[in-house]
C-alpha cells in the first residue's frame, strides 16, 4: 500500500507521490493550483502605496532601525524578450550609436520592474524592508540554440525580507 499524507488545506488523503508543497505546507495537486491562483491574485491586488512603504537596500541593515524578524527570501524575475535583443545585437553591427540610449533605457526599466516586484513579495510576507538585495541580469536561451530570436534577458532580484522594530 502506498504511503498517504493529509493535504494541509482540504484534509484529503493523498498519495505521497502526488503531494506538492505550498509555502512549506504539503497539499494535494488541486489545492496547489488553487493556492497558486490565489497567490497571483493577491499579488496583482497590491497597491502602490503598500509598495512604496517597503525599504529596499543592498546593505545588510537599515539605518536607524533594528531588525525584528527575518521573514523570508524575496525574489523577482523580469524576462525581456526578442525585440530588445534584436536592438541590442544590431547596435553592435551598426556601431554603438543612438540605439544604445534606448537599450540602456530598456535595461534600466527591467531593473526597476524587478525591484518593484521584489516589493510585492515583501508586502505579501508582511515585511517592512528587503535587505542585502542582489540584482543581476543574464542572457538566456529559450527553445533552439543558435537562433537570435530565441534569446532573452532575465533580470533577477533577490533579497532578505525583514520586519523592523
Ligand atoms: Zn487538498
Summarize the structure.
The chain is α+β, with helices and mostly antiparallel strands.
Summed over residues and divided by their number, the pLDDT gives a mean of 85
Any idea of the CATH class of the largest domain?
Alpha Beta
Number of helices: 4
Largest sheet: 4 strands, mixed
Please give a handful of descriptors for the protein shown.
alpha+beta; 165 residues; single chain; 4 helices; 36% helix; 2 domains; two-stranded antiparallel sheet; four-stranded mixed β-sheet; 33% strand
Task: Write up what this structure looks like.
This protein is of the alpha+beta class and 165 residues long. The protein folds into 2 domains: 40 residues, no CATH class; 117 residues, 2-Layer Sandwich (Translation Initiation Factor IF3). 36% of the residues lie in helices and 33% in strands. The strands form 3 sheets. It has a 4-stranded mixed β-sheet with strand order 5-7-8-6, with helices on one face. The protein has a two-stranded antiparallel sheet with strand order 1-2. Strand 1 and strand 2 form a beta hairpin. Helix 3 packs antiparallel against helix 4. It is flat. It starts with a strand and ends with a strand. The model has no long low-confidence stretch (mean pLDDT 85). Zinc ion binds next to helix 1.
